[in-house]
Design brief:
Distance between the termini of chain B: 53 Å
Shape of chain B: extended
Order of helices and strands of chain B: HHHHHHHHHHHH
Order of helices and strands of chain A: HHH
Helix content of chain B: 55-70%
Number of strands of chain B: 0
Shape of chain A: flat
Structural class of chain A: mainly alpha
Largest sheet of chain A: none
Oligomer: heterodimer
Largest sheet of chain B: none
Helix content of chain A: over 70%
Structural class of chain B: mainly alpha
Distance between the termini of chain A: 43 Å
Chain lengths: 81, 322
């Protein structure tokens, strides 16, 4: 199980760096979502399922949806582009 | 009115002024604190000249190719921000390297508090899930603060993003702010998926809330799941459908009753606990749904507040009202 943990942690670091280097805001948002999902898997491996449920619902779900709405309001994700 | 003093002396006292203010005869701040119109220094300068000066200033300041200061600032800004980030990372990693290794017996978090939670948590709170027992019984005051933070956050967003109605009672036609003008979209795939998923999501959320003291989960996670389900429903079917059961009034009523029930219930148990009295709330058999005293109703309260908050955030962002 150790190697799976290391793979996931490495994925977290890659995600965190990729969010700040991605030029497209929509892409960085999707990366942010995947970061939260990986984080919730890590919570399960660390034996705290309570946090995992919250992380999946809030981090990957509601926060990202709010970000999507905000990006749409400021016209950062236009379909023509 | 004082009868001991002369009228003229009395008029000078503080009490006289206070009672005059109290009766509303004179506002001591009226005419005192308002900003007075200062004498203009440049009375004879015409408006066009002022406007031209302003424009020149802006053009000069934002002329990046010829403005040396901006160039220097931009270079310094880039270098310094990278340096700052590196320094912050370094400091944080240094702190992590100093912290003790996870799971060692001598760690500072292995004190009598956590030992007490683990040993007698089940006995004292009646909750099989120790985490819920902790956050809704031992540390219930923190959770009360968190629920209030959510409520205050919604109110703040409401103040910032609200769309007012104009005099005729119609909502202002600000198309950018109000996504409702594009409703309903009637996307067949989304609606089909939502009909299947939304009931499952909401039932799962209710299960997580009601089983908070037995299995992993609790008010916050369950509420977030229900909120996500409501948002999906809203996206698929539009505001007209959700407004049948969820409006501003519903939000107010639910939040008011949940938060005040939480306050009263916890005040009761804190009062009894501080005075070493029996609270009289049965703990029940651990593992049963109706057990662990106040935890189940408090879980429901927190779950309702969180679900409403999630939905309200989304609705406020989308159309400036709910």
């Amino acid at each position: 199980m150790e190697w799976l943990m290391y793979i996931l942690l490495g994925f977290l670091v890659i995600c965190a760096i990729a969010v700040s280097f991605s030029k497209n805001l929509l892409n960085s948002l999707l990366i942010f979502m995947s970061y939260s999902l990986v984080m919730s898997i890590i919570w399960i491996l660390l034996e705290s399922p309570d946090l995992a449920i919250t992380e999946a619902a809030v981090g990957a779900g509601v926060t990202s949806v709010l970000f999507f709405v905000t990006l749409k309001k400021i016209h950062a994700i236009d379909e023509e582009k | 009115m004082s009868k001991l003093k002369d009228k003229k002396i009395y008029e000078k006292t503080w009490a006289y002024k206070f009672f005059r203010w109290y009766r509303g005869e004179k506002d001591p701040f009226l005419g005192e604190v308002e900003m007075k119109q200062g004498e203009s220094l440049e009375e004879n300068v015409p408006m066009e000249e002022i406007a031209r000066e302003k424009r020149d200033l802006i053009e000069k300041a934002y002329d990046i190719e010829h403005n040396k200061e901006i160039k220097v600032f931009k270079k310094f800004y880039g270098v310094l921000s990278v340096l700052f980030c590196l320094a912050l990372t370094f400091v944080l990693l240094l702190m992590v390297s100093y912290s003790p290794k996870t799971g060692k017996p001598g760690n500072p978090n292995e004190n009598e508090v956590s030992a007490r939670y683990i040993e007698s948590g089940l006995q004292e709170t009646g909750a099989v899930n120790i985490v819920t027992g902790m956050i809704l019984d031992y540390r219930a005051f923190d959770t009360l603060g968190e629920s209030h933070v959510l409520f205050i956050a919604t109110i703040t967003v409401f103040i910032l993003l609200r769309i007012d109605k104009d005099e005729k009672g119609k909502e202002k036609d600000r198309e950018e702010a109000n996504d409702r003008n594009y409703e309903p979209k009637n996307d067949a795939i989304l609606q089909m998926a939502a009909t299947v998923l939304v009931p499952l999501i909401i039932i799962f959320g209710i299960y997580v809330i009601l089983n908070g003291h037995i299995s992993p989960g609790g008010g916050f996670s369950g509420g977030a799941i229900i909120g996500a389900g409501l948002i999906l429903y809203l996206n698929a079917f539009g505001f007209a459908k959700t407004e049948r059961f969820f409006t501003e009034k519903t939000y107010k009523i639910i939040c008011f009753f949940s938060l005040s029930f939480y306050c009263l219930a916890k005040s009761y148990s804190f009062y009894m606990g501080a005075n070493h009295l029996e609270s009289g709330i049965p703990l029940g058999t651990p593992g049963a749904i109706l057990s662990s005293g106040l935890i189940l109703p408090l879980n429901i309260c927190v779950g309702l507040v969180v679900a409403c908050t999630m939905y309200a955030f989304y609705a406020l962002f989308r159309k400036g009202g709910f």
